[in-house]
Description:
Layout: H1 9-13, E1 22-27, H2 30-41, E2 57-60, E3 65-70, H3 75-80, E4 86-90, H4 91-97, E5 102-106, E6 112-119, E7 134-137, H5 140-148, E8 155-158, H6 165-168, E9 174-179, H7 183-187, E10 190-199, E11 201-205, H8 207-212, H9 214-225
Amino acid sequence: MIVFTTPPHHYKERGIFTQDYITIALPKGKLFGLSTELLKKVGWTAEGLHEKSRKLVITNDAEKLKFIITKTADVPTYVEYGAADIGIIGKDVILESEKDVYELLDLGFGKCHLMMAVPKDKKRPRLEDYSHTRVATKFPHIAEKFFVERGMQMEYIKLNGSIELGPIVGLSESIVDIVETGTTLRENNLEEIVHIMDATARLIANRVSYRLKFDRINNLVNELEKFL
Length: 228
């Protein structure tokens, strides 16, 4: 547990000790609409709160709320450093980012899973047969932990989009990526061979904010649980 007798300067600068407002980091993309709809049910919303807003921070002064709309991968960073008190983000992003945040609640939506896939015509008999090959992924930390636990050495190639392209053009022998329906895998002649982990959206909090703004954040958790 973090214990401060005097607030550190970097938290002061980012406004984490401004007690009046709660700042929420929301991810662009598929989780944004689901997140805002859920928060709206408990009265946590603001005028103009939509993904395509040109405003970087959207405020509800009456309810003392501030919303940050940011790239998915950045949500844990904003929360860890106190630029946001809380955030909503997928479990996969939390694990990959390795940020020091407090996970408060499994929100249940945005369900998907992380898996390893290979070209159908290049499947090998055993998982271990892929050792010492290249794997393309957005999740090198999660992938490395998975393979190391199985005694496998791999070469990790970090990509930010179109992971399926890796094996097609010869960049890698396999991929580790998030899957929802599997349609993209099938369309690119790839087959899932290993299920790595399930992931859903989570409510996370800055550890200091959670202590100093406990009442409001805990009330939010209790209200959200009624709708889950």
